[in-house]
Design goal:
Elements: H1 4-71, H2 75-79, H3 81-88, H4 93-97, E1 100-105, E2 110-115, E3 118-119, H5 127-139, E4 143-144, E5 156-164, E6 170-179, E7 198-204, E8 209-211, H6 228-238, E9 248-252, E10 255-262, E11 267-274, H7 275-311, H8 313-329, H9 335-376, E12 380-385, E13 388-392, H10 394-400, H11 404-407, H12 419-436, E14 438-446, E15 452-463, E16 469-477, H13 479-485, H14 488-493, H15 503-520, E17 529-537, H16 540-547, H17 549-567, E18 572-577, E19 580-588, H18 590-606, E20 608-611, E21 614-617, E22 620-626, H19 634-650, E23 656-659
Parallel strand pairs: 22-23
Antiparallel strand pairs: 1-2, 1-6, 2-3, 4-5, 5-6, 7-8, 7-11, 9-10, 10-11, 12-13, 12-16, 14-15, 15-16, 17-19, 17-22, 18-19, 20-21
Helix pairs in contact: 1-7, 16-17, 17-18
Length: 667
């Protein structure tokens, strides 16, 4: 009969086998379920992304057809409707591609109305279509209208394109109309095959259903659609932008809903599937797996107990002999057993004490090394723990007018001119640590003699093993720079919100830079030159609308600080106005400029803006243009960078677009 210790070990082993078997079965079952569910989610997400890209390509193809037609319309044709009609009737593909076409001049007069290839009077043109033509003429940009018409058979969209001359002046506008249910846009076969447990739906950002397996649901409201209605409501409340090919899947009320956007017409493609019917085969397989796991646990437990009984035979014999000895001596003392355990514990404690002494010596050596580094560091470095000054570099002590002994162990608050400055630092520390693990700002400090010191503080924070908040500061004396800002000349050349050079200073500095490079003659075989990055914050107006203009100003300040930090060692930054910024990279190749722009874009995408307890993700669209060696006027260069940024936003935002000054589209 095994002793009490062996019996307890057997019981623990049985419990461990049962627990490990149960946990393993649960983990495997859950992992299998998640894998199957993830595969189904990816498959459904890929489907809606594919359909969204297909619809986006159809819209783009329609715009190309319209653009081809617009390229063939001359200013003389706009003055002669008869000539224009005759040219269009010569078998142009656009005439057969669109269900109807309208052309208007810049004075607002509709000079052509073709319905199914036949000329109709201008009075028969729908009012909504006239409004879209007028908007295109005013904005000077291509437009894709919302849904026009209130019946499925009459529902249609309109694509428009401004007609411009060589100087960029709008001479007129051409528009093409496509029926929703046409083969060129949303044929009914797109929503098929229809299944009881799954539906493919296309709807607008306003919730109007454009395509549905059930024709009677077309032009209905998506909010009444089971499953997808709730996801649509959440999307509207989150103010998410529409991007091409980026699908998202959610599970709502036993429905698996996958959605992907089509940006240009602001449509959504959704696949709605009954998750219970989808997962029913998996649940049956999981039940069978649980029964198999229970049988396996029982068998393994039995084998483990028998194996432990065999392994513990020497210990069982030792236990019986000890019992016999104790009974023979009439004592309950198990001295030999305790002696062996005590000896083992003593050896372990001696070893632990030796290790502790060794680690203590290592820690003291590391502290002395760090102190030596801080004494030789040419910059101001401060290390704090829970708002207490722990270590300072020699340069930081000289900057503040103290010795290290006077400051180490004191509160950080002692360095600040007033409590408001310290509270502002504490706030930036909390927000910066939550958003990007660090913070940066300008603060008024106080030297030992009471004089004022303005310093730029760049900090990084972390939690140590004792759950204490540790921070490392780098201090830079900017008192002279602050005095410089008070001069009128500085205010005239800098943006007062972000402290960056303003547009006029940017233009003056860029012209001087180009003139200097032209005077140096340059190297014709060199790939390096001056590169301009034009940046535009995506969806900045949403921050103003949702959080207020004060939050928008704070976002611009923090964004400018982050951008300046990212570009400080490779170029310089300016604010062009509104939410538009520029980064100038002197002596930079196009390839390196793309790497820098991608680093800036990715860093801003990872940055999280926090305001009043609310957070907002921020992205940026970037246009890149390299200045030609023979550039003598910055205007085409700036326009090309602006257009590159515009096309980056048009392509879906949060991306980079590279163009050239000689490019016709940029010019």
């Amino acid at each position: 009969m095994p002793g009490p210790l062996v019996r307890r070990l057997m019981l623990i082993l049985l419990l461990a086998v049962a627990l490990s078997g149960t946990v393993t079965a649960w983990v495997v079952s859950r992992a299998a379920g998640e894998e199957v569910a993830g595969r189904l989610v990816r498959q459904q997400t890929d489907e809606v992304e594919l359909v969204a890209r297909l619809l986006a390509s159809k819209i783009e193809q329609s715009q190309k057809v319209l653009s081809t037609l617009a390229d063939g319309i001359t200013p003389q044709m706009l003055q002669s409707p008869t000539l224009l009609e005759w040219v269009l009737q010569q078998g142009l593909p656009a005439l057969r591609f669109f269900d109807s076409m309208e052309i208007a001049r810049s004075d607002g007069r509709l000079i052509l109305n073709l319905q199914n290839g036949k000329m109709e009077s201008a009075a028969s043109v729908d009012t909504d279509e006239r409004d879209i033509l007028l908007r295109t003429m005013v904005q000077g940009k291509p437009l894709v209208s919302g849904v026009i018409g209130d019946r499925p058979s009459a529902a249609r969209i309109m694509l428009t394109l401004p007609l411009v001359n060589d100087e960029g002046r709008v001479l007129g506008v051409v528009g093409g109309v496509l029926r929703l249910q046409s083969q060129g846009l949303l044929p009914h076969s797109l929503a098929l095959p229809g299944r009881d447990d799954s539906r493919l739906i296309v709807f607008t950002s306003d919730g109007v259903i454009l395509s549905h397996p059930q024709l009677e649901r077309v032009m209905g409201n998506i909010r009444t659609e089971p499953g997808v209605g709730q996801v649509y409501t959440q999307w509207r409340s989150e103010l998410k932008p529409i991007t091409t090919g980026r699908g998202e899947t959610r599970t709502i009320s036993d429905h698996l809903v996958s959605m992907a956007g089509v940006p240009m017409p602001e449509w959504w493609v959704a696949r709605v599937t009954d998750s219970r019917a989808l997962m029913a085969p998996l649940h049956g397989a999981q039940r069978r797996a649980w029964w198999l796991a229970a049988a396996s646990v029982f068998l393994v437990g039995l084998i483990a107990v028998l194996g432990m009984a065999w392994v513990a035979l020497p210990l069982t014999r030792l236990h019986r002999r000890a019992q016999g000895i104790l009974l023979a001596e009439n004592t309950g003392d198990d001295a030999p057993s305790r002696f062996a355990e005590s000896e083992l514990l003593t050896d372990a404690l001696d070893h632990l004490e030796a290790q502790q002494q060794h680690h203590g010596h290592q820690a003291e050596f590391s502290r002395l090394q760090l102190q030596g580094i801080l004494e030789q560091a040419p910059i101001g470095i401060v290390i704090t723990r829970n708002d207490v000054l722990e270590l300072l570099s020699q340069q930081a002590s000289l900057m503040l007018g103290y010795s290290r002994v006077e400051l180490e162990g004191q509160s950080v608050r002692q360095l600040f001119a007033n409590d408001l400055q310290f509270d502002e630092l504490a706030r930036q520390m909390r927000e910066g640590a939550a958003a990007r693990g660090g913070y940066e700002g300008e603060f008024e400090l106080r030297r030992k003699d009471g004089s004022q010191l303005w310093a730029r503080v760049v900090g990084r924070m972390s939690m140590d093993r004792r759950s204490a908040m540790a921070a490392v500061w780098v201090l830079e004396d900017i008192t002279s720079a602050r005095d410089e800002r008070r001069k009128p000349m500085w205010a005239n050349s800098h943006d007062l919100l972000t402290n960056l050079p303003n547009r006029s200073a940017f233009l003056e500095r860029i012209r001087a830079l180009l003139a200097k490079k032209a005077g140096q003659g340059g190297n014709a075989d060199s790939d390096s030159g001056v590169v301009l990055l034009h940046l535009d914050l995506d969806h900045f107006t949403l921050v103003n609308d949702r959080l207020g203009h004060e939050a928008g100003d704070m976002l611009l300040r923090q964004f400018a600080s982050l951008l300046d930090e990212l570009a400080r060692h490779v170029g310089w930054v300016a604010r062009l106005g509104g939410d538009e910024f520029a980064v100038v990279l002197p002596n930079c190749t196009a390839e390196r400029a793309e790497l820098i722009a991608e680093h800036v874009r990715a860093s801003i995408e990872e940055w999280e803006f926090a305001y009043d307890g609310q957070t907002s993700m921020t992205t940026v669209s970037i246009g890149i243009v390299v200045a030609p060696p023979d550039l003598d006027d910055v205007t085409p260069w700036l326009r090309a960078a602006d257009m590159a940024c515009y096309y980056a936003k048009r392509a879906g935002r949060n991306r980079i677009m590279v163009r050239e000054v000689a490019d016709k589209a940029a010019a």
